[in-house]
Amino acid sequence: MMTDLILHEYANSGNCYKIRLTAAHVGAMIERREYDILKGETRTPGFLGTVNANGRIPVLQIGDTFLPESNAACVWLAHGSALIPQDRFDHADMLRWMFWEQYNHEPNVATLRFWRAMVGEANLTAQQREQIPARETAAAAALALMEEHLAARDWFAAGRYTLADIALYAYTHVAGEGGMDLARYPATTAWLARVAAQPGHIAITA
Amino acid sequence: MMTDLILHEYANSGNCYKIRLTAAHVGAMIERREYDILKGETRTPGFLGTVNANGRIPVLQIGDTFLPESNAACVWLAHGSALIPQDRFDHADMLRWMFWEQYNHEPNVATLRFWRAMVGEANLTAQQREQIPARETAAAAALALMEEHLAARDWFAAGRYTLADIALYAYTHVAGEGGMDLARYPATTAWLARVAAQPGHIAITA
Question: Which residue of A has its CA nearest to B148?
Answer without folding.
Answer: A53
